[in-house]
Design goal:
Elements (H helix, E strand, L loop, with lengths): L11 H6 L4 H24 L8 E7 L6 E7 H8 L4
Antiparallel strand pairs: 1-2
């Protein structure tokens, strides 16, 4: 389990990614960083090509403590790495 701590300081990339909402921009930046780490972990897992391989992410929502599972592939994570404003 991982916990994310973020020091929120509004700056231009957050405003651009969040379309004027710096908190939404912070969430987008955090998701891109997580996707990059997850993709790297999948790529190192088996020594085989990771393209198309699914993994299950178990996500806990802080607001209500609900846990959900989300299926994603390596290719989906790679596409999340680069966010465009």
């Amino acid at each position: 389990m991982a916990v994310d701590f973020v020091v929120h300081y509004p700056w231009r990339p957050e405003n651009q990614l969040g379309e004027g909402d710096p908190l939404a921009g912070t969430e987008q930046i955090l998701e891109c960083l997580k996707a990059q780490g997850r993709a790297a972990a999948i790529a190192q897992r088996d020594g085989e090509s990771p393209h198309g391989k699914p993994i299950t992410l178990r996500l806990m929502h802080a607001a209500d403590g609900q846990v959900t599972d989300q299926q994603v592939t390596y290719d989906e994570l790679i596409s999340r790495e680069v966010a465009s404003p």
